Amino acid sequence: MTKSYPRFTLADSIKIEGPGLHSGEPVAVTLHPGESGFAFRLGGQRIEAHPSEVTDTRRCTQLGPVATVEHVLSALAGMGVTDAEIEVDGGELPACDGCSLPYVNAIQSAGLASCGSVEVEGPFARVFLQDLPIKIAIGRGEGWWRCIFELDGYAHGRQEVELAWSPEAYAREIAPARTVVLEEELPMIKAAGLGKGLSEESCLAIGRGGFLNEPRFADEPTRHKLLDLIGDLALSGVPIAHLDVVGERCGHASNVRAAQKLVESVAVTRRG
Question: Which of 23, 92, 95, 105 fits as disulfide partner to 67, beta carbons 3.0 to 4.6 Å?
Fold first, then answer.
């Protein structure tokens, strides 16, 4: 069964500047209209947003030399954008408050333009990735996404978040959720020179007894995990509205593996 969806790109280019999420160095990203899916440009290099181009998934998702791509991809996919050229000045995307809301605001400011249609055939069976306790299940559906997040020994316990996708719902319910940092990881992160672009306002720190700073949502960690899952699965090129997805205890490595399995299970055809 093949389903067709409208393709949208940006109506205009828009630039965002700030410190890199991990490096803390000044970086910038310019979102441009595009007609060939998502791709990142760094200097003279163009890197297609595809699972095969992922080079690191330890603390973020890295495409070629470009780090921390998941938040901007999540914002684009979450707002219904299917095509964009993402020009990066520096080796990393800006921290952007540790979430995707600044990208969403930029996309809304630029506006959208129609650029054809995309036809998706499949998946004909559910795509599963299981590496217990990690589970990801992906099927053809109507844009219903669910994420389950649980940390053993932490007070906030098991959390579940569901999203019946629309651009409005994504912008309101998912985009503001910030990067999560565990209290016990802070010395290691600092020693490794990571997270320099984050502050108390742009991340949510979790201790075993509860949150160490004020959360934006009671289940903010799970909402951010869903934000990441949407961004990583956007590497498949499949519109968010085509999929029903459940992710449990998932992270960048498992998300990218699931995106690759999804690529192998669908045929995506773009038409002008």
Answer: 92
The total of other beta-carbon atoms located within 10 Å of residue 104's CB is: 23
CB 194 within 8 A of CB 217: no
Give the global pTM: 0.95
Residues of the chain with pLDDT under 70: 22, 186-200
Q: What is the pLDDT of residues 176-229, one digit of tens each?
A: 999 988 887 766 655 545 555 566 677 888 888 899 889 999 999 999 999 999
Of 22, 156, 224, 252, which one is the catalytic site residue?
Answer: 252
pLDDT recorded at residue 139? 98
Residue 252 is a catalytic residue = yes
How far apart CA 192 and CA 97 sit, in angstroms, is 21
Domain total for the chain? 1
CA distance 207 to 211: 6
Range of the domain at 256: 2-271
116: CB partners within 8 A, 6+ apart: 6, 7, 35, 270, 271, 272
Closest CA to 271 of 166, 114, 139: 114
CATH of the domain at 257: 3.30.1700.10
**Is the previous residue joined to 94 through a cis bond, with omega within 30 degrees of 0?**
no
